[in-house]
Structures are given as structure tokens and as C-alpha cells.
Amino acid sequence: MKKIGVLTSGGDAPGMNACIRAIVRTGIYYGLKVYGVMDGYNGLIKNKFIPMGSSSVSNIIQRGGTILKTARSKEFFTKQGRQKAYENIIKHGLDGLVVIGGNGTFTGADVFINEFDFPIIGAPGTIDNDLYGTDLTIGYDTAINTVVEAVDKIRDTADSHDRLFFIEVMGRDAGFIALRSGIAVGAEDILVPETVTYIDELIEILERGFRKNKKSGIIIVAEGDDAGGAFDVARKVKEKFDYLETRVTILGHIQRGGSPSAYDRIIASTMGYAAVKALLEGRRGEMVGIINKDVAFTPFEKAIKHHKDIKRELLEMARVLSS
Question: Is 225 a catalytic residue?
Fold first, then answer.
């Protein structure tokens, strides 16, 4: 193996740059030429390959987003698009590829490997932390800290005005951000897609708290909760719990940005290093992850298809501690 490429795909996540840095510098250390591919899979199709040296990844470990840019490519999910991508890979003489992204990224990589038998290793970059085969994904820790910082500020206003705030966080299909951030901010309740939300039960929790002289409250709502987003939940609660002033805050894309936490920088660096080593060892079609603090590898198919569930006991703990 003499030349490898690296790209980022799907939603950006804090720590992607740290992972790119590790891939480039590890590759160079082992005598490889490393190419960055701009704009994800679109860059493979449109021939956006750039040579990367050690200096090209200087001073990026602390930066959010991705210097290689990212995009979701509909064309890559066509046979013709993947054929173009493969032809460009061969044109540049690449012997392997590291892709940083989430479920969609690895789905595309898995199809590509089956068609062209080309070595690809994945690094999990997604704030949702919903990939099977790793305890934490790149960006998740930073996203939680971003939510906690924002909610702590909102709590000041809630207490000052005796208001009930419904705060929507990212998590269309998974409630990992909501669960961990909700525990960290001492939320009165946490609503996630993995469990059924009963509005009457939520109101009972709120009434129990206010009987104990609570004057304000924070409800964390994952955007994919079955009762709807924060606006829908707030409306339903207000219909039956109308004597408290309510407000809704959608945190949105601020959860994606920002300088990565120390932990995200460390795991991103570890995964980037391990991904290059894996290619050199002849591995392919696997996602590098960290399980119980050790590097682990999971086939793309398993990482994509297996469901990673939240810890239900943490939801129960959160309710006990908020009572």
C-alpha cells in the first residue's frame, strides 16, 4: 500500500479535523502518500483530490467542522456515480480509503466494496452516537457539552421568571444526546424516540415537582420523540397544565459546531491512527471504534444494521434524581 485517501461525509461533527490530522500524519509516518478528497463522496465522483502533507493538517486539531468539507451525495448511490468514483480512485493510484461519517457514509462504503473490492476503513463521525460497534462516536461528547452549556444559561432565565422550558435537541432516531445532557442539567424529564411519551405522565411528574415548591422546570425533548418536537409537546402540556408560563427553545445546529472537547480530540486521533494501521494490515470493510477504552473493529454491515439502544436504567435514574 503506497497511497491512501481520506474523506468526510454526512453531517459534520466536532473532532473530524482531529481524525483527518491523525490519518494524514500516520500515513506519512509509515511512508504513504495521502490525498484528501473534498466534499465527501461527491469529491470522488468529481475528482476533487488534493495531496496532503504534514503541514496541511497543522493547527486544525482544535477546529470544529471539517477542512475537507462534507456533502450528502445522491449520485454516489447510483451505479454510474460509483463507477466514476472508482475510475478517479484508480486514476490517482489510491490503494485504500478512510471515510469519516455515520450510517449513510458506511452504507455507501459497504456497497462500494462489494462492487469493486476496494479497501475502505471507516471512522465513526456523528454527534448522534447511534452507531453499533463503538461506545462513543466522534463529536458526541462535544455536542453534549454544547447542550449543557446552553441549557445551564436557559435554567437561569427559567428560575428568574418561574417558567417551564421545553428544549429540543438533535436526535431524530436516537436519544443519546437528550439522555446524557438531560442527566447533566438535572432536567425534570427527558423525552426520547426509544420510549413512548405519555403526556399525562409528564404532567404528573411536573405536578409532583411543583407540589414540592418547584417554581421552574426544564424538559429535554429529542427531535424524534413520538409525541412530536418541543413545540408539539409544549402545546399538549399547556392544554392541561395551563397555570405555568411555558417557553420553547430549539438548539438546532449549534450542537454540531464548536471546538471539539479534549475527549473528542483524543478518540478522533486514536481512531484515525487505528484506521491507517488497519489498512496497512490488510483490513477492509470495517468501522474502527472504541469499546471499553480499547480499539475495536466492526464490519460495516453490522455497524449499520444492528441497533444501538440507550440505557433504560439511565432514564429511570434521571427521573428519580429529578423528583
Answer: no
